[in-house]
Amino acid sequence: MKYKLGNREVSYEAEGQTIAGDDTVLLHHGIDLTAGKGWGKIGYTIEHLFEKNIFNDFKQGVKQLLISLWEEAGLKIGNDFKLEHYHRVADAANLHYQAVEKTKLIPSEKFPVSIKHLEERISEICGHALRVFSPTFKQSYFHFRVIRPGQPDNNPLHRDVWVEENADGINLYIPIAGSNENSSLAIIPGSHHWAESKIERTKEGAIIHRVKFNVPAVTNILSSFEIARPNPTENQVLVFSPYLIHGGAINLNRDETRISMEVRLWKK
Question: Which long-range contacts (CB under 8 A, 24 or more apart) does 85-88 make?
């Protein structure tokens, strides 16, 4: 799969059987939490996140949480450690993958501030009462995405709803460190309204560079398209539809790891 991120052409090769979809528009059979919004056509928006005092607690709590999780994985972290320099202490592949496992499916009780602050803010943005609670797994959780510079750590292009339990909600991308125009999440605007027949993808979770991903990977798009790289900054949140094609966001920074928090919410 070849595509452009800004002026840079990038690509990946996904292993596994590929399939082409039919004329179904998955969003037409699900709950569209972007409907009726000014950003509903493109499928995403960047919004202010927390009040200043809450954000200060959030920022401090995030760093403490990440450091504690990484130290459990065996990373040696000094007193002057900066989150964006994660790759300097996790240069060995085995340490990186151990650290990544620690940052997945974190119970919401460990959220750096009360999860209610987040639920209330995103409910306000979307115009629906939402909560961080998976209807499928009956659990409340969040996770971090850690993308080292120049490494194939990022998910391939995909729709979250190709994994059924991700349907009907809304996604959040919260920049934590090293997130900028060279590293932030990539999105194909408006693709949440595409029929499946416009896309070829792997049948199962993709394998790329011998790494298995939970999501299938887009292997071809049967029309012209452009990829946007929305760039939320500190104390902003990227809110986007799980029906959008997104991912493929290789970190083009020279010496900064991109760290983001990812959260999903559904209607109460």
Answer: 85/255, 85/256, 85/257, 86/146, 86/148, 86/177, 86/257, 86/259, 87/148, 87/149, 87/151, 87/255, 87/257
- CATH for 10: 2.60.120.620
Number of domains in the chain: 1
Per-residue pLDDT, 93: 66
Query: Domain range holding 34?
Result: 2-267
Q: What is the pLDDT of residue 94?
A: 78
Are the C-beta atoms of 10 and 2 separated by less than 8 Å? yes
